[in-house]
Amino acid sequence: MQENLAIGILCVLGGGIGAQWIAWRFRLPAIVLLFTLGLIYGPGLNLLHPSETIGRYFHPMVSLAVAFIVFEGGLGLDFRQWRAAGEGVLRLTVVALPINLVLGSLAAHFVGHLHWGASWLFGAIIVVTGPTVVLPLLRHTKLRPRVAAFLRWEAILNDPVGAILATFVLEFLMIQGNRHSGMFVAEIIPHLLFATMMGLCCGVFPAVLVRFMSRRDLIPEILRIPIILTLAMSVFAICNFFMEGAGLMAATVFGMALANLHVLGMSELRRIKESLGVLVVSCLFVMLTADLHREVLARLSLPIVAMTLTVLFVVRPVGILLSTMRSGLTWQERLFVGWIAPRGIVAAAVAGAAGLQLRDAGYPSADLVMPGVFALIATTMILHGFSLRPIARALRLTLSDDPTLAIVGASAWSTDLAGAVHRLGCPVVLVDTYAGALAAAARAGIPTLRAELLSDEGMESLEERPADYLIAATPDAIYNGLVCARLAPDFGRQRVFQVSPGVARLDLYRGLSRDSRGRVMGEPAWNFTLFETLFERGWRFRAMPPVSAPSGSAPAAPSGSADGNRLMIMTIRKGSAILVCSAEDATPVEPMAGDIGVVMEPPAPPEQTGQA
């Protein structure tokens, strides 16, 4: 038993995180790799069966993990973003959901040959688009803000609603099977309304309590995040006691309430929950897929395959088309949202539990619900995972795939640097809080952003034109460090740079903490005053010719170097990376064919005349 548990933990944790790293390194959909890994562990090699190893605690553990995921998603639903996607989200949740329920049930009955009871349960389960699948896909694709908001809000809101809907359909079918239809009005509807109201109250009240206690210094900082996470799990368990599925609604509402009540300390929670979310999603997908038995896969038949294709190419597109008629969505957005609808963990968990209950109640073809849902999950994850980026690019719903550089601080020399990068065709945005400082860049056609990046509004504005690298180049070294420290968890600590705060302040023990600042751009002596002085003397930024061959003489000098005639600032690898030179580089930048260096050079000397 202990050996099996140790092997299982090693397979799930090691394999899951390894798959996430491979997906990040090679820009692949992580969900597809996790799904494939689970199939190899379980039905393939018969190495891992979590429900047998863990026993009766497996499904409660899965439910708690799903509750954490929807709570994490709820923290990202700020109503201030509703203006960008309000109408579309409302239609996708209120209008499209019942349409997809009806069409999905019809497809299950007439195409998949399921009996009506199993068909209605199947239709209720597949209305869910899982945040466990959608959110990781959105992280790897630079979608335009509005269409990304559509998919994010729909996935997070529909998850608990879909789970409650499936529970409602199951209870109705169980009553019908027992021939006590009068109980539908007498008991089920009041029970449903009570559970829904309780889910809303249990979500809002703890958030208000946390805000009240935080403002009165009644929660120590070391306990703030543990208390919030405990409350999220508690409201889920309490509401699920009254009705299966209501706990997901309570956890989602709790996260949304915390986000919209603007409770202090949420930035630390967001960073922790994102890391935990990656770990939880990785483990869940591997375990649930590995728990599939070969008997389930053996039930996959031609009618189930046809039903899956009908849901993909008919049910979802028609549901979106009907629900978004006469809306403000463009035809590209309607087409894209009609195609992208991957199902995830909630659909799998609900199908596994509800399908067994329906089968035990004696409904014909109830044992086909789980294989049908599994086929849809697998198909949507693979097709949507690999097609999301190319289809979004073809419909012009993505931002540039080239790495984007954000430069904070619009001085004369930083504007010239942004112009040099912009002329190379590399995406760049110049950020400052003063419109006058950005005027010169705007006249030159350089993208600008007037925002305070240490504010929530500024962060949201930067998310609308996401950047990959950042250089903080204001005269205030402390402000530069604050910006880098704030954005490092989003960009990556090796991708945020600042002009040097001074040689003495870079001491790793007595100087500014490395966690409180960015990497130094260039040499430690290259502070803001140096760049300003050189610019006043006529020095300017320009691009060097591309490297012709890796083995040839490279125009790009080693990282952060200066040869007396120029300062090497960065190397641009089109479509791949922006390598900002830094004295803190572990190894010098090795130029490759096609690399373009950006340098700061003095003005050309006047031509000598009268010489032989």
CATH topology of the largest domain, by name, is Na+/H+ antiporter like fold
Radius of gyration: 28 Å
Q: What is the total number of structural domains?
A: 2
CATH architecture of the largest domain: Up-down Bundle
Distance between the termini: 92 Å
Strand segment count = 10
Task: Give average pLDDT, whole number.
Answer: 82
Domain Cation/H+ exchanger transmembrane: 22-393
Keywords: Antiport, Cell membrane, Ion transport, Membrane, Transmembrane, Transmembrane helix, Transport
Pfam family, one: Na_H_Exchanger
Protein name: Sodium:proton antiporter
Overview of the structural elements:
It holds the Pfam family Na_H_Exchanger. One of its GO terms (biological process) is proton transmembrane transport. It comes from Gluconacetobacter dulcium. Residues 22-393 form the Cation/H+ exchanger transmembrane domain. It is found in: Cell membrane. The chain is α/β, with parallel strands linked by helices and 612 residues long. It folds into two domains: 56-395, Na+/H+ antiporter like fold, CATH 1.20.1530.20; 405-547 and 562-601, Rossmann fold, CATH 3.40.50.720. The protein is 61% helix and 7% strand. It has 22 helices and ten strands. The protein has helices spanning 2-26, 30-44, 50-54, 58-75, 82-110, 116-125, 131-139, 145-177, 183-215, 221-242, 246-261, 266-290, 294-298, 302-323, 331-339, 345-360, 369-394, 412-423, 435-443, 456-463, 477-491, 528-536, and strands at 405-408, 428-432, 448-450, 469-472, 496-498, 519-520, 540-543, 567-573, 577-580, 596-601. The strands form two sheets. A six-stranded parallel sheet has the order 3-2-1-4-5-6, sandwiched between helices. The chain has a four-stranded antiparallel sheet with strand order 7-10-8-9, with helices on one face.
